[in-house]
């Protein structure tokens, strides 16, 4: 483990190029090039670092969860083949994919605007050196003294580096949250069909860190109409059995039961998990930073600092660039348009954006077309991989609504949920001939 003190960000970049290049030129006794995983604190910074390294003749790729499945697999394969000298990623990779790297470099000791914990740090340095590939693993910490990535952070980067290298990993205590415990107990009751209390007690004792008593959990499940309690033991109701097959928590299923008559399946599915991985594009970010001149504004659309800036800045539009005024006005008209007293800090904005993305998909648009439309119309950027995974989650929730609707004998809601799934699941890549027909049809509609 090596700590390299850097006077500023520019010196960090020089060290980054030097260590990544030197490692790639070193060959192990197993005849593999040395390769580096470079950790930084944001997806945006991943691209900036990769661009700098490539300009300095260090072949580098970006890797994060926002990439599509095929994009991630392509980077993984080319890295394993030795094509790339380095891959730049966020701290999220520490617990994910297995890259055969000989060296990890910490360009930042933060994850977003939070310092890394000792446990996270040890997980990440464990990436360095793979048996059968490399002779040893190296970890390099590029540290800028007195550096903070946000005013809310305690300590500085040099303080954190010392703690990460000297402090022991904190002991971990497993605690199963209430909803997870209810889910597990309900699944056990459904699997055993009609367990005795003795069987259920045995199963309860095998749970990892239960936070509530078995009696309390059974009472909650009964209140949610998930189980009926008899003298010889509990038995799942039709709703309980359907819930166990949906992978929803009993509390979520109970909330669906209350809303199923008043809301469409799509609305219910969106409310369960709206899309939130949406960011200001580079053009708007530059305009905001130029206006702000100092301070920090989050890049996520729903970050408190960005929403606060939007609300306060529109009171004095004369000082803002036209791009910022027009974009904020559009957001307020089309995304943050509810009448809630808490607007724009309520959840309505996330739900409205989710509806906008679903409408784009139903046109139908593919992932690239959706990201392009968000960029042009709203000056927002979403990674295609994030959109794809959110649609996958949305489909799971729609299937759950369809199954629960059958319990309530609501065939109309079931059909609507399944039809919505079919429309979303249409092939993402439309054949060229069919695409031309769709484009011609859209053009004729606009003309009329």
Task: Please specify the SSE layout and strand pairing.
Blueprint: E1 2-5, H1 9-25, E2 36-40, H2 43-55, E3 60-63, H3 69-80, E4 86-90, E5 103-106, E6 110-111, E7 114-115, H4 118-125, E8 138-143, H5 157-166, H6 178-192, H7 197-205, H8 214-223, E9 227-230, E10 233-236, H9 238-246, H10 250-259, H11 265-272, E11 279-280, H12 282-292, H13 304-313, H14 322-334, H15 348-361, H16 367-378, E12 380-381, H17 384-407, H18 411-424, H19 432-447
Parallel strand pairs: 1-8, 2-4, 2-5, 3-4, 5-8
Antiparallel strand pairs: 6-7, 9-10, 11-12
Helix pairs in contact: 6-8, 9-17, 11-17, 16-17, 17-18
Keywords:
alpha/beta; Rossmann fold; Sec63 N-terminal domain-like fold; 3 domains; 12 strands; globular
